[in-house]
Task: structure prediction
Amino acid sequence: MTKMTNVKALEFVLTNCADLPSEVTEKLNAMKTSFEKKSSAERKPTPTQQENMGHKQEILNLLADGNQYTITDIMKGVPALSELSNQRVSAIVRQLTLSGEVVRVEDKRKAYFKLAD
Result:
């Protein structure tokens, strides 16, 4: 089941309600066009996302030596991350894990991260 969007709802009304006044039809078409334009707009990354991209590259540079690191080790190894919280660094590393660039390894219930092969 797909999500009912505003565009789909307006298309449904326009195709299934033939007895609408012309003013209403014009207004609905204008609304539909507006929603389509809004959804297709190119979005720039937020400042936080841009900052995180730089942090990701620094983390990848640290992990390039092939060793396994905990989040705390990563924070100590990359000076720029020292001002960030443990949770934020963990979220950045998780994004790298989901993208397949980093692998998470558990040893004795402790999470280690290393560069993917």
